[in-house]
Design a protein that fits this description.
By secondary structure, the chain is of the alpha/beta class. It is built from 11 helices and 9 strands.
Length: about 270
């Protein structure tokens, strides 16, 4: 049912602006048992409920955190509401699985993973803006649950691997088209859940990110240094090294380098 001032019932608890209270009470619900619940707020406000997220991980409780408005694409609300370092913090927290899906399909897989996981909390970092659907075959669809998979490949050994999450995945796909038109063999890897990918067998991780391909470029509209472990010393990251700004979302993405043309230029510089 729709939640309005006149009809505020249903299966919702209205916390107001009380992120820590919400997350802490959610932990209590998980400990009590009998309910499959989630807590929701903007991603930047995970800072307010950080202790409770950490306790959910420590206690190995199934608590689903839905954090929306996940990047500088939020736009006019300004840098106070635009998360930059929060994804890196969540990924660095033991026993938290952080999903940043690129479309409805990856979001559905993330929801299923969160529901089926019984030994810790799951974070879903979802964008404010609408994102295009990505085409997949049956094998690719099955591999979404592994946290990282090849979404677009090339004939033969790739010269360059582009990896991305969330709203930047579509940008990587567009850049791959431009690079392919210029004669470059490009692979695009979607990485919706790095923790899941890191837990895969070594042969699968090698098949997705072959060690022989040293030219790697990661793109995410968040703290850049996290991705160094995947791109290596010879790779590059298009990410954030400071806070966002106040402007329309599209203008901010272009200002900070998150367009297909800018990503293509970064890839060409890496290959030069």
């Amino acid at each position: 049912m729709a939640i309005t001032a006149e009809h505020s019932g249903g299966n919702y608890v209205h916390y107001g602006v009380r992120e820590f209270g919400m997350a802490a009470i959610g932990n209590g619900i998980a400990l009590y048992g009998g309910f499959l619940h989630y807590s929701a707020t903007f991603l930047v406000f995970v800072d307010y409920c950080r202790n409770a997220v950490r306790m959910a991980a420590l206690m190995k409780q199934r608590h689903v955190f839905v954090f929306t408005h996940d990047s500088i694409g939020l736009g006019e609300d300004g840098p106070t509401h635009q998360p930059v370092e929060q994804l890196a913090m969540l990924r660095a927290t033991p026993n938290v699985e952080t999903w940043r899906p690129c479309d409805t399909v990856e979001t559905a897989v993330a929801w299923r993973a969160a529901i089926e996981r019984g030994d810790g909390p799951t974070v879903l970092a979802l964008s404010r803006q609408g994102l295009p659907h990505q085409q997949r075959d049956a094998e690719q669809l099955a591999n979404v649950a592994r946290g990282g998979y090849v979404l677009r490949d090339c004939a033969g050994t790739p010269e360059l691997i582009l990896m991305a999450t969330g709203s930047e995945l579509a940008i990587a796909m567009a850049a791959a088209e431009q690079l392919t038109a210029g004669g470059c063999r490009v692979r695009v890897v979607s990485m919706p859940c790095c923790e899941r990918f890191d837990a895969q067998p070594a042969d699968y991780r090698e098949a997705v990110l072959p060690g022989a391909v040293r030219a790697r470029l990661a793109v995410e509209a968040a703290q850049a240094d996290y991705w160094r472990k995947y791109v290596g010393l010879d790779g590059a990251v298009v990410g954030m090294t400071g806070f966002g700004a106040s402007a329309p979302g599209g203008a901010l993405m272009a200002h900070f380098g998150f367009t297909a043309e800018q990503l293509t230029a970064a890839a060409e510089a890496l290959l030069a």
